[in-house]
Structure formats: C-alpha cells, structure tokens
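Researcher: Please predict.
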Amino acid sequence: MRIIYCFLGLFACNSVSDTSDDVSPGDREVALGTAPDILAAAALGTVTNVRSLASCPAGAPAGAACRQVTVTNCPGITGEPLDAVVALLPQTGTLRGTVVHFSGSGGTGFQIGGTTQYQAAGFRNVYIAWQAAWEQTQSAGIKTAACRPATIIQWVFSTPGLHGGSRAVGFCGEGFSGGSGQLGYALAHYGMGSILDYVNELSGPPFARIDLGCDGDATANATVCGATDTLRLPGSLTAWENIQPPLTCGSTGVPATELARWRSDSIAVGGVYDYPQTQVQFFACTFQATAVTAQGKIYFDLISQAVGGAPGRAQYHCYSQADGCQGEGLGTGNSDATQALLANCVPRHL
C-alpha cells in the first residue's frame, strides 16, 4: 500500500516510495490561493417541521430511525426551504460520540461508510439525506446554499436525543465528495469549527476554488502528491452556481465580474481556516482523479498556511493505483479513514 502523508507545515509529502514535491512550483498559486480573511461566521437558518417517519427511505442503514425536517430561513434564500431525512442509528455499548454523515453529489443519498465499525465502537451515527440537491437555489451561489448543511449540523449538535450539546463525548463529521463540501463550507464560512471535534474529508471538498474549476481559461491541472490531476469541475456546477446562459462551468472568456462571483462562492476564499479545536483529515485518490483531489488539496493547504505548521491539526492522505483507488474511490483509503475517525473522534472543546 502506498500512502503519502502531508502534515501541517509541510507542503511536500513524504512517502515510502515517492519523495516528489506535493505541489509543483508552477502550481503554487493554484494550491495556496490568497491568505484567508478572518471573517465572522455567516448566519444560520432554522430547522422546523420535525416529524417522525414510519420507516426510513431506501438506502438508510438497517436499524435506523428516521425523521424528516425542514431547513429554512437561511440568509439570501429565506423563501427556499429544503427538506432532509435524518436517520439515527444508536451506538452499541458505551457512547463515545456522534458522527454526522453527508453523501456526495447533491447529498440526496446516505453516506454509510464505516457504519458497522463506528456503531460497534460506541458512536451514534446520524445520516443526512436531502430531498433535493442542497446546492441548488433559485439565484444564489453554492456558498449561500451551504447554510443548509451548516444549520443541520448545529441542530444535530444541540438537539436532545441526537448529540444534545454534550462536550463529554466527541462530535464529528464525515463527508464524501460533495458531502465533504458540505463540511468544508460549514468549517470555513459557518463557524462549525466551534462544535466539530474531528472531520473526515473523503474525496474533496470539490468546491475549494469554483473559479479555477469552472474557468475554461484557467490552469486545467495541479500536481498532487507527484501526480497530475484535473482541477476542472463537472457540468453540474452550472446549475448549482446559477451560471446563466450562454455561460457554463467550463466556458472560456468569462467576464471578470462572474469570475469574481465564482471565486467569492468558494470554500477556500474569504473564510476561516484555523480551527484550534477541530482536527481535519483529507483522503484522496490521485489515479484517474476527478477534481475533488486537486480542489481538496487547495483547502488543505490553506489550513496548513493558517496555522503556521502546528502539528496534529490536519493531514492529507494520498492514494495511488497501487492502493486500489480510482477516480473518487479511495481503495484502501476507506479503511484508513474509518480507523482515523475511530482514533480521533474525541472531545476537544473542553
């Protein structure tokens, strides 16, 4: 197995089989962007209309109890409520903490990776499945829509019968691809570093720099752990970011005002990247990678830059074809991520 670990303060990765620089000099601007601005966390919405469901939807883990909720009153989209199904799977034995799971793409499925191990180890699992793509709004960008997952994270943390506001056990998050984007926005722009103790970013987040991913005139690739991986985001960003015709995600000759909007809507621009009481670990595949790998590395590098090399605050784990990874599939990285959460989902906000 070939795993490259990037620790805070080291922009080069050390590997048992590869000592290449993690980001080539020509990609330095792509990787680091600009220094983060320290801003107040954006306002959250509210969770309303909580009702129990007689049975969980298809895809929910066996044994879970489900309720449906409405997230509403998010600034900028106050008239656009969105429902989600919240599936709760209690722990086995003594409670060690809560893990909130977010799935990829529009987040309409259940991210159930690690369920058996987490439950057996004493972790309560909470799975969020949106009734429609959480990124989609009538006219706003993805950063505005990210109020929705941030609001539900705060609600899970505070609600009795879920996490209940406890600081005696860990409160942690795990997201895959677009789901890691939900957690990235929550940390960088919505203040969730104040409650999350540990986060697994699996294959992502893909929205670190929307401008670099959607501008057809921008650098198409970045070097990550010695591999050349695409920065180009998929066409789904056209609708999610409300890019208006004739422009699309991938257009050339994009007006400067629109590029500025895409940039401003990104995770890795204008947010907070120093989370003193939250550990964040990234797991990414470099073989036939989608944009989640290079985009996620941009976000990781900003965290590293923000904390000035403090050890143990974040790690970036790279996997290659030799590890069975491909595209967004992590191969052996899946079990590594599960073990990392089991070891590190501990109370840090004491």
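Model: The chain has ten helices and twelve strands.
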